[in-house]
Design a protein that fits this description.
two-stranded antiparallel sheet
């Protein structure tokens, strides 16, 4: 499963670094343990790919929170979007004020990776009495 996670990260534009494998393995083990505890001791086949996205979302959030993530794909977290430019008495505005910051675009990416998590876990959850 780790190979699929790495390929998915590459597809999102993330470049692996030295310590990433350990962190990904840790998050993978944690996520698998959580799903097993909720789903009666086994990981359902229908959660294989959603789990990969959930792991990637947690990984990216951890990297960003530690300051180790500065860029993923075309999202540069160190760059502020250019919303307007003033040169003398001329002003040019872009996007009508609707230009999204890198932070907002990153949050949308992570949100898309975790979308439907609660619903999917509910589909496979096993009640233990």
């Amino acid at each position: 499963m780790l190979e699929l996670i790495i390929e998915r990260l590459k597809g999102l534009g993330y470049e692996m670094t030295d310590g990433d494998s350990f962190t990904l393995n840790f998050i993978l083990s944690k996520e698998i343990d959580y799903v097993k505890s909720e789903c009666g001791g086994a990981v359902p086949d229908g959660l294989k790919y959603p789990i990969i996205d959930w792991i990637i979302a947690e990984f990216l959030i951890n990297k960003k929170g530690s300051g180790a993530l500065t860029k993923i794909g075309d999202i540069d977290l160190n760059e502020a979007p250019l919303k307007s430019l003033v040169e003398g008495d001329i002003r040019a505005d872009w996007g009508g004020g609707n230009v999204k910051s890198a932070e907002e675009r990153f949050d949308e990416l992570v949100g898309s990776l975790t979308k439907g998590r609660t619903r999917l876990m509910g589909l496979y959850r096993v009640m233990i009495w």
